[in-house]
Every structure is written in structure tokens, then in C-alpha cells.
Amino acid sequence: MQDEATVSAADIARLAGVGRAAVSNWRRRHPDFPQPVGGTPTSPVFALADVEAWLRDQHKLDELPLEERVWQRLRAEAPDDLRVAEVLADAGELLLDHHAAGAPPAGRSPEPLSAETARAVTELAAARGPVAAFEFLFGRYRETQARRVSATPPEIPALMAALAGDARTVLDPACGTGDLLLAMLGDSGEPRRLLGQDADGDVTRLAAVRLTLLGADPGVREGDSLREDAFPGVLADAVLCDPPFHERAWGHEELRTDPRWEYGLPPRLEPELAWVQHALAHLGPGGRAVVLMPAVAAGRRSGRRIRAELLRKGALRAVAGLSATHHLWMLRPPEDTPPATVLMIDSADPETVVATWRRHANDPGHDEPGVSRAVPVIDLLDEEVDLTPSRHISPARTDHTAERFTATHDRLAATLGKAGRLVPALSPAAERREARSVPLSELARIGYLTIHQAPMRGDTEDGGDDPPLLTAEDVAEGRAPTGRAARGDTRWIPIQAGDVLVAAVARRFVVRVAETGGPLLGPQLSLLRVDPRHLDPHFIAGVLRSSANARTSIVQSTGTIGRADIRRAQVPRLPLEDQRRYGAAFRRMAEFESALRSTVAMGTELAQLLADGVAEGTLAPPNETSPPANP
After folding, report:
1. Which of 121, 288, 357, 489 is the most exposed place for a label (fewest CB within 10 A)?
2. What are the tens digits of pLDDT across the range 194-227?
3. In this structure, are 192 and 73 located in the same domain?
């Protein structure tokens, strides 16, 4: 165990609410800045107590947040960075005790946590709740261990869960910290049997803690699934897997005669094909497997025989090309009559992938140029057996490219002209305004506003007639609702015009004021309904975005979308007329940001239309005899 808690330059920046450059400047300009106590010349670490004292002396820190104090205590418990997961798992199991008992467990201090650290963890659980406490600590673990922790890309788990569909028994044979199993918890509330295995014992403990805190009863086991399968004979309704890429020592020699290799012995340098067959071996009748694969696995010559057998027997049903590096393979147990086609999807948009899979998985004549196509199996069984979707998609239609280029050009020019006029004109104040700030919880107590939060999960549907549901991603992107709520589910909150909608995104608040009512408030969103006699909604929305409010109110951000304790946010107490003047400026700035998003989207579209038009010969070059527009 280390003698004292230490912090990196990034930690110091987070504590003080500044950028890394500011910390570097302090080290250069202030001789009394604490000296490093470890690390390396390029990545030094400092004693937390010394840094905290210096920040207070410089009036750059009022009080070290409880969450940060607990995190630094846990880091100090770990003998080295490789043991942080072990210590965090100990803390998580302590939080599970707290969660089950509803109060800090008396005298419980799992090894190797010290009594002081155990008290700090239970104090955080009492203040924030065990779930929020662990989510914060786990998020910080992922940030600091990004180079060591293999995490599924954040947008992938929900996509894979949607492709897998309803399932009562779910298996992830390379579960890591449980991202894919968490995505399969589902919204219906029906009990699910969640099974996971991973070779790293500490991360399996973390996965078990994460799942249990959210109400699951997981069966997570330590061990190498290929060599020591912890679930022999188990047939699942869904198998989700993000296998370890490029793992050479996966057991090729000792597993040469394994009965799982129904489609062929996986090549030594292609362990991904071993994981695919492992997933198929655990599928029950009618089950589905979704496996995240490296894009190169679609065309390597060494794996073409196994790919061909997967096609011939009808086990491989679809391949989705998400990017130049990642594909998703959708598989099912072979049937007596194998399907004649395989669905190929070439899209990075999760909604497009899911919608295409659900609508056209069994449509042998499907062909959406530029997006997806049902490819005859016989056409794929050539010398290469290349399953790269982009090679088999029909070219996108090129109708009216020139007309679309001109129309987009005109819209872009008009938007650029409008954007410059939207920036609010504010001037420096003659003197700093000293206004008392109050937390939202106090404004709610005196009746100036009400605070609503959507349920963590709920029933959702895909039907076009179901009520629209605003998601956290919709708020972040400034777009119309893309979700749908199951009709009759009364837990969702209807949004009204003037409501302030808040999402925690990448450790900051994204805030919108609803212009109209109608949609329902989706998961991971907060809603503030203000009394217009006392508060201006655009003023409230604007000040919520301050760095100070994000720093003190966001208690979890393990991925893109986080969770916030919105009641802690502070609002300056100003007369209503002053609020309205500031609110008008905030509103103009929101319109400016919206115009910028549209500009970026139109610029991207215009560049693509230019390339397509030149390739097609439907766009003419500029008149070379004409003078340039801007000499």
C-alpha cells in the first residue's frame, strides 16, 4: 500500500476545474507548487494533501469533493496501477453490503481496504447512494486505466443488445467489466439470467458488482472461456461477445480436437473465429449470437474455409460494417433448410443497422442501394469468401446530384449569414456582480420550480404509432425525439413548452428549453418546470451549463452519457427582469449553436455531393476565365 494518496496533473486540473495547461503554468510560475513524489518526468504524481493545501492557499479550491477524496483514497490503497481494479472491487463489494442493508455495515472492512478507506466509501454511499457512488468510482477507474482496460466502444453495447432481441438467458463469454450484460438488462423489468466469464478475476468482480447494484442476479465466473468453459452444456437465448482481438496464445494446440470446431479448426492467428464457434456452441434453438469482429476477419485468407462453412450451414445471417475497423456478425443455429442469402449492412448508424436487421433479416430480395442488401450465399462462395459488406452493397443512387449540390450550397450560405447575426453582444461588466447563489433544491423547496427525473429504464417500442420519447442523445444532438415509449406506460413524464431539459454529457451539462410540448422525457434526463412569475427558463438553462455546476453536480459519467445530481446545481439569485435579459442572450447563443451544427452537417453533405458530382460528370468546374470570388 502507498503511504499517501497521490494525484496526477490531470487529477489536479479536475479538482480545480481548469485545463491541464493551467496546471503546467502553475508548476512553472509558482516556486511553492508541490514537488512530485513519484511517477516519471513526463507523468509526475503529487501528494494529494500537499496539492489540496496549495490550492486552498491560492483560493483555487474551497473544499475537496467527497467523491474525489474517496477515489484518491482507493488509489492510495493499490500497491500499483495494476491493482486498482482489485481495490475497486473490494470497495464495490462493500457498497453491495451497504445497498443490501440500507445503511453502512457495522465494522465491515474487506481486505485489503484499510478501516479509514472503508469509512470513506460508506460515507460516500450514505451521501450519494451505493449505485451513484460506485458508478462515479468506476467511471474514474476507466478514465485513469484507459490504456490497460479493454472496453467495448460506448455506442456498441446498446446496438448489440438491440440486435440480440428478447432473451431470458444471456451469455457473454468474454464479459470484461460487464458492458454487454448491462445492456441486456432490458427495459421490461422481466428477470433475466445473465451469465458472464472472463480470464481476469478482478474485472469479473467489477462486472458482478455493477450488475448486482442495478438489480440483477448475475452468474459471473473467472476463467478462460476457450480453455475452461464455466458453463458447459448451457444453451442461451442470446450470446453477446466482444472477444479479445489479436490474442495469439488462445489455446490453438491444446484445443485442436475440441468438438466446438464444427465449422473448422480456427487458424492460430485468428482466435476471433474460435470465439464465433464458441458462441454458436452455446446457442439454444432459435437463439441469436452477436459478435464484434475485427474488420480484417471478413477477408483473411486463413479463415475463408470457416467463413464458407458458416455460410453453407446457414449459421451466419448478417454482417454489419460499422467502421473500417469493426464489424458485427449476427449468427443463429443452423436449420434444416439454410437461408439462401446473407444480409449485408454498411452503416455506422446504430438505428439504421437495427432497423435493417429487424425488417429485412428474412427478406431475400432486399436491396437498399448504398446501405444494405441480401446477398446470395452462392455469390459469396468464391476463392476469397470476403464478407466485407461494402464490397456487396449496390451503389447509392446518383439522381439529381447537381440539383442537390446547388440547393445545399444555397442553404449553407444562408445559414452562415444568419449564424453571424445570432451571437449575443455582451460587454464586460463595470464591476463584478456579487449575487447570492441558491441551489435548485432550495428553489424547488420554496415552489419556484419542480424537478423531475425519468425512470432509469422502462418499456420502449419500435412502433410508429407509439408516443415519441426524447432521449439524452437527442438533447445532446439538438434533434427531434428518436425514441418511442410503449403505449400505456404511465411512468414517462410528458414534456411541456418552457420545460428545461438537462442531460449530463462528457462531464458537462447539455441543456435545452422545450419550445413545444408533447414528447415524453426519456431515461437519463432531468426536467425543470419553472414558475414564470419567478424564474426565466432560458436563464436557468444558461447558468446550468457553467463549469462550476458541471463540476459539483455530475456524479457519474462512465461513458458518453452520464448521470447528475441536478439538485446541487447553483443559480444566481437575480430579479426577474435581469434574468430575462440574460435569458435572451442565452437563447440567442443556443440558436447560434444550432446553426453551427446545421452548418457542419451541410458542409459534410456538400463535400460528399461535390465528390459524387465530379465522379458522375454531373457537375461542371468553375469558369477558368472568371476572376476568383475573393482575390
Report:
1. 489
2. 999 999 999 999 999 999 988 888 899 999 999 9
3. no
